[in-house]
Structure formats: structure tokens, C-alpha cells
TrEMBL record:
TM helices/strands, residue ranges: 41-61, 73-89, 138-158, 164-187, 208-233, 245-273, 285-306, 351-371
InterPro entries in the cross-refs: MFS, MFS_trans_sf
Matching PANTHER family: TRANSPORTER, PUTATIVE (AFU_ORTHOLOGUE AFUA_3G04000)-RELATED (PTHR23520:SF5)
GO MF term list: transmembrane transporter activity
SUPFAM superfamilies: MFS general substrate transporter
UniProt keyword list: Membrane, Transmembrane, Transmembrane helix
Species: Streptosporangium becharense
Classification via Pfam families: MFS_1
Annotated protein name in UniProt: Putative MFS family arabinose efflux permease
Length: 391
């Protein structure tokens, strides 16, 4: 296998293993903490530590990741994940688990956008393949995450067991270290010439990356208004949907979203990255805003399924767009900054949705649809005249 193919294969395997572990953790971690007698405040503090660790690790990666070495940092993150698993399985005290959580290796979501993702985006882009193949790689990368995370969540439906969760995370972390050791030297950042000063973070692309980060933060905040947990709650409250109906709906949505991730590179090859990002997202936003106006449960589900066919097509194209837009030596910092911006604002969405819920059940859907559409139109207005570098 050629070096580029080897990198892609190793990263997809890594993503699949990590998605499986995070899927189990997303379901079981809270239940385990509750069974251990932890108060809601304690659970919140621990999850806050996970989030804080993700943010801190991402920002540190932006500043020092290339200097330390991508493979070395990647292996260190997996070592931290293995330590997290051992800590959970052994029933260690909360303070120790909080310390381990601050490493940034754990995740509060099935599909994370933290330091692992940042490094993988950069390494996938640095394979030297044509842009079309890079975009296809991002589509497959995200589809693998979705499928593996779903499988992990299904496995997490077993009775809560700290040894199961901790053991899986420890195995995933150990396997990840082995995969990191097999990555070729070609994934590292370009070497700095002897005697030359190290470049500052985001020297040439600071303006575009800052604008993209701000826009991505708005999009992520809007998406937080309609996370799946809220949609499931809304379906049961508004239409009396059973958990079985909601579960089946979400399973089908997952299948359609995976298909859209794989279809996005095909569309981008014909119309371009930015057009795919914007003009598949706008119809998705309109469908989202229309959900609360459906006359019955069947209509609401039909709109959600139609939206799922388009809602994720901007994900691989967005990742590829950022990596193509910035210079090679600034890709790690650009990925870290834009991913951190999305991760920083998303948790506020559900809290705001709950706050405005008494004012109307439709408001979170309408606000999310309107804000996301504003994001798309602004993105198009700012970047439509920007020419991407020729690969």
C-alpha cells in the first residue's frame, strides 16, 4: 500500500475504534456516575471538566502541536484515553477522573470535534492527493464516525457497567497508540529551515480563519437548539410519540445522514466546496423550521427525514474547505481554532432552547432555521469571491 493509502487506512481505523468507545461512553458514563451516588452538580462538574479539557487541548494543539510532532501528540492523546478507561474501570475517586478528563481525550458526544479530529483532518489533507480525493476522504471519515458511534451507542444500551466502559476505552486507547506508531513521517508538519524563526500561529490566514471560526460558532450554537434529545422530547410532547417511534426515526435519520456524508464529495466535485456547503444547507434549514408546523407526527417525521438527506453534506466539505484555504504550515492551527469555535458555543444551544420553551414549542426550530440560514448567506457573501489555491 502506498504511504497516502496507509495514512487514510490507519486514520479510518482509528476513527472507527474511537467512535465505538465514545458511543458507549455517551450512553453509559452518566448512568454510571448516577449509580455511584454522584449528585447532578457533580455530574455537571465532571462533564464540564471534559469540555474544558477538550478546549484546552485544542488550543494547546493549535499553538504547539506541529512543534511537538503530530504523531507524538496523537499517541499521547490515546495514552490519555487509555488512562481514562483504567480510571473509570477501577472506580477511582471523582477528583482523579476529573484530572484525567482535563487531558482532552474524553468526549461528551458520540462524534467529537476536539484534538483528535483536528490532527486527523490535517493528516488526511496532507496525503498529497488531489482535492477531489481529499473531500471524498473526509466524507468517508465522517461516515465511519457516524456508523461506529451508532454501534457504540447500541452497545452502551446494555446495563451500566464501569468495567465495560472503562475496559473498552482502555483497549481503544492502547490500540490507538499502536496505530499512531505506524503512521509514516509524511504526516508531520513541513520542517522549518535551520536558523529560520518558527512562524507565528495563523500568520497568513488569521483573517479568513477568524471569520470562519466566528461563522462556524454561530452555526454550532444554532444547531444546539435542536439537538436530538430536544427533538425527541418535542415529538413526545407535541405529538405523543412513543420511545419506539422516536428510536426508529433517529435510526433512519442516522442512515440518511451517513448517506449524505458519502454523497457530499460527489456533489462538491460538480459544483465546488463552498456551493455544496451553502446550497445544501439552506434547504435543510427551511425543512427544519417547517417541522413544528407539520399537521401530525407523520408529517413532522417526514420533514426530519427529508432534512437528514441534506443536513450533513456541509460537514466534509467544510473540513476540506478550511484545509484547502490555509497554507500547509498553518493547517493544524486552523483546524484547531475552527473546531474549538464550534465546540465552544454548541452547549449553550440546549440551555437557551429550554429557556424559551415556555414561550412556544416552535421557537427553537424557527430560531435554529433562521440563524443557520443567516450563517449560510453570510458565508456565501464573504467567501464567494475567494479563490482557493490550486492543488
Amino acid at each position: 500500500m502506498n504511504p497516502a493509502g496507509r495514512v487514510v487506512g490507519l486514520l479510518l481505523t482509528s476513527q472507527a475504534l474511537r467512535g465505538l468507545g465514545y458511543g458507549i461512553a455517551a450512553v453509559q458514563l452518566g448512568a454510571i456516575l448516577r449509580l455511584d451516588g454522584l449528585t447532578p452538580a457533580g455530574v455537571g462538574l465532571l462533564l464540564a471538566a471534559v469540555l474544558a479539557g477538550t478546549l484546552a487541548a485544542s488550543l494547546a494543539l493549535a499553538r504547539w502541536g506541529d512543534r511537538a510532532g503530530r504523531r507524538r501528540v496523537y499517541a499521547a492523546l490515546y495514552a490519555a484515553l487509555a488512562c481514562s478507561g483504567i480510571t473509570i474501570a477501577s472506580g477511582a475517586p471523582l477528583w482523579l477522573l476529573a484530572v484525567v478528563a482535563m487531558t482532552g481525550a474524553l468526549s461528551v458526544e458520540v462524534i467529537e470535534s476536539g484534538p483528535f479530529t483536528t490532527l486527523e483532518q490535517v493528516m488526511l489533507t496532507g496525503t498529497g492527493r488531489p482535492q477531489r480525493e481529499v473531500v471524498r476522504g473526509f466524507g468517508l471519515y465522517n461516515a465511519v464516525a457516524a456508523v461506529a458511534g451508532t454501534a457504540g451507542a447500541l452497545l452502551g444500551a446494555l446495563p451500566p457497567d464501569r468495567r465495560l466502559l472503562g475496559g473498552v476505552l482502555a483497549v481503544v486507547g492502547t490500540a490507538g497508540m499502536v496505530l499512531a506508531a505506524r503512521l509514516p513521517a509524511s504526516v508531520e508538519a513541513p520542517a522549518v529551515s535551520p536558523g529560520s524563526p518558527r512562524p507565528r500561529m495563523l500568520t497568513r490566514s488569521r483573517g479568513p480563519v477568524a471569520r470562519l471560526a466566528a461563522l462556524f460558532a454561530v452555526d454550532s450554537l444554532a444547531g444546539g437548539f435542536v439537538v436530538q434529545a430536544y427533538i425527541g422530547y418535542w415529538l413526545s410532547l407535541r405529538h405523543g410519540a412513543t420511545t419506539q417511534a422516536i428510536g426508529i426515526t433517529f435510526a433512519v435519520i442516522g442512515v440518511l445522514q451517513t448517506a449524505s456524508l458519502l454523497a457530499a464529495p460527489v456533489v462538491a466535485a460538480r459544483v465546488g466546496l463552498l456551493r455544496t456547503m451553502v446550497f445544501t444547507h439552506i434547504p435543510s434549514n427551511l425543512l427544519l423550521a417547517a417541522v413544528p408546523f407539520a399537521p401530525g407526527l407523520g408529517g413532522a417525521i417526514a420533514l426530519l427525514l427529508a432534512r437528514a438527506c441534506l443536513s450533513q453534506m456541509d460537514v466534509p466539505t467544510r473540513q476540506a474547505y478550511v484545509m484547502t484555504l490555509v497554507p500547509v504550515e498553518e493547517r493544524t492551527a486552523a483546524a484547531a481554532v475552527t473546531n474549538t469555535a464550534r465546540y465552544l458555543t454548541r452547549p449553550a444551544g440546549p440551555a437557551l432552547a429550554g429557556f424559551i420553551l415556555p414561550l412556544g414549542l416552535a421557537l427553537p426550530f424557527m430560531i435554529a432555521g433562521a440563524a443557520k440560514t443567516a450563517y449560510d448567506l453570510t458565508l456565501w457573501r464573504i467567501f464567494r469571491s475567494v479563490r482557493l489555491p490550486t492543488p
